Amino acid sequence: MKKIAVVGTGYVGLVTGVALSDVGHQVTCIDIDQKKVERMQKGVSPIYEPGLDEVMMRNIEAGRLQFTTDHHEGFSGKEVIYIAVGTPEREDGTADLQYIDQVAKDIATHVKQDVVVVTKSTVPVGTNDHILSLIQEYLVHDVRVEIVSNPEFLREGSAVYDAFNGDRIVVGSDSQRAGDVIEEINKPFGIYCYRTDVRSAEMIKYASNAFLATKISFINEIANICEKVGANIEDVATGMGMDGRIGHQFLRAGIGYGGSCFPKDTKALTQIAANIDHNFELLNAVIRVNNHQHRALTEKAKSVLGSLEGKRVAMLGLAFKPNTDDMRESPAMAISQELILAGATVVAYDPIAMDNAKNVMPAGVSYVQNVEEALQGADAAFIVTDWKEFKALDLSVYVDQMAEANVFDGRNCYDLDKVALTKLNYYSIGRPPVVRGLVGVKG
Ligand code: UDX
């Protein structure tokens, strides 16, 4: 079992550190945020992630998992150092590498033994070479440093599950020895380890996220066409997915992708291409389609209700997807902005993300503690996140609470036949509307 340091305790760093300790490694997680570190030392996760607190606690208690703000202490005696700091988006869409550079310099200053440095953060092609040369430039002690690109594919909301059940682990290294070390570390997970060179590994991460984003924008465009020609996107996606070459996953039409990865990584990849004078036309279109899709519900509401001036809109769900409190790039922000601009009053509810939402949502949105309160007296309900709680609702709650039971569902939460048994006016994505119990009737 290895002695490992993980720098950065965001989603990627914390889940990586916790998972590595759970399979028996000795792990120290380093973060510059003192308060966060103090909370983590007590076993409190700074992020909402199902199952994480429990795994964190059992490894702290077993003495395998530590947290510190001190790089010197954190790097001391470690054979492997994982870099998992953020690479936020700059205004021009490129990845900001200042935190990566800082870690490289910290490693160079503090390591007194040979180390393998592993990059988990999503970084443009060539960054690992840059990290290695930066470390070598600032290196204080005479030690051997090798680098491995080991991109992370975990999904928020199921990050702990993914850490133990991923489809593959990508290990990119130009040193056979360093690659072997990382493959060995990951052996206890029992996940297939795909070995390649550093630059290909860096590219695999961007290409994977760009491809998944493309699938989503593609199905959203098909959904928009389905609405116009009277087809049902659910049946279309099911029929498409039966072709093994297409597959069923990532064909859920909705209001577009959000989150910390797809919006940032797609833009970064178009910039990487632009830097070598390549216009990545397909990916640019994927991004445009996604931005437009964020407006799908508001446009629908305007065409059904006419003016939104003075209307009360209940917003159900704020997080960019269920099982997370993450608001980064959530369509809820753009949607509520448009509603407010159109003169509507927005009353929002989310089971978990409300605290985070209050910091980033447009001013003027008000927040309530449950679905019923949000729906009370509303002229329209917008379903933005497909939380289980919303999917399981007895549909009569809409009719009972709302002034007008107009439901605009951005996540296709309900079965059309079930809706047809109620008095809901129901508009979803890529499916016929249900009005006064009749499927396919225009409002
Ligand atoms: C994603 C990748 O899945 C993961 O491999 C990578 O490491 C980080 O980015 P994440 O952002 O956590 O993970 O969420 P994911 O479940 O992939 O969903 C991303 C967005 O796409 C969400 O807004 C979701 O609502 C949307 N989505 C997903 C769809 O609209 N339709 C789909 O069929 C799937």
UniProtKB/TrEMBL annotation:
Pathway assignment: Nucleotide-sugar biosynthesis; UDP-alpha-D-glucuronate biosynthesis; UDP-alpha-D-glucuronate from UDP-alpha-D-glucose: step 1/1
EC number in record: 1.1.1.22
SMART domains recorded: UDPG_MGDP_dh_C
Residues that, per the record, bind NAD(+): 31, 36, 87, 122, 156, 264, 328
GO biological process: polysaccharide biosynthetic process; UDP-glucuronate biosynthetic process
Top EC class for this record: oxidoreductase
Protein name stated in the entry: UDP-glucose 6-dehydrogenase
Species of origin: Salipaludibacillus keqinensis
